[in-house]
Specification:
By secondary structure, the protein is of the alpha/beta class. The chain contains four helices and eight strands, in the order αβαββββαβββα. The protein has helices at about 10-40, 50-60, 115-125, 165-175, and strands spanning about 45-50, 65-75, 75-85, 90-95, 110, 130-135, 140-145, 155-160. The relative contact order is 0.12.
Length: about 180
């Protein structure tokens, strides 16, 4: 019995197939990158202040933020961008106009710190007033509250593993109904 003849694949056809696969792979990667480019990511919070130097004294010198960049006008800081000491989060301090309000009703800045009680004690030792000392909240996070020099409300908290769990909020709703 005679074996069936095997088809020989030409080198040209192999190159053509490889090129088509590479093009398809590149198109797939480009589509994935394009999707990532369309996803929203948080950059920073802008905090309007009456005095950027005073704001730097609070965020950099008291809370430990690291100065990334600042802009000065007539040798006075009017803008500063800072990075949180424990991560990639950033805030920007921006000089408010002379007649502009810096009130921010409905906005609160949240900064997470594992050793919350110790952190608040250290702030108090430096003479800073913590408006509400750390306490456990019904949703399972431990919170303390304070205000920056311009009155912006800040929550220092520790949520740990509960931070991204929906079940924590369900437990809070259940506790509220009880």
């Amino acid at each position: 019995m005679k074996k069936p003849a095997q088809k020989k694949t030409s080198a040209k056809k192999i190159r053509s197939t490889k090129a088509a696969l590479q093009t398809k792979s590149q198109a797939s990667k480009a589509a994935t990158a394009g999707e990532a480019d369309r996803k929203l990511s948080f950059n920073h919070a802008m905090v309007y202040v009456k005095d950027v130097e005073r704001g730097l004294g609070f965020y950099r010198d008291l809370l430990g933020f690291k100065l990334i960049d600042d802009f000065r006008y007539e040798n006075k800081p009017v803008y500063a961008r800072l990075r949180a000491p424990g991560g990639d989060g950033t805030i920007a301090l921006h000089q408010a106009g002379p007649d502009a309000s810096v009130l921010s009703d409905g906005v609160r800045l949240y900064f997470e710190v594992r050793e919350l009680d110790d952190y608040c004690r250290k702030l108090q030792q430096k003479g800073f007033y913590v408006t509400r000392l750390p306490r456990m909240m019904p949703w399972g996070w431990r919170h303390a509250y304070l205000n920056d020099p311009d009155g912006h409300e800040i929550s220092l908290y520790w949520a740990g593993d509960n931070r991204m769990k929906k079940t924590v909020m369900r437990a809070a709703q259940k506790a509220a109904r009880a």
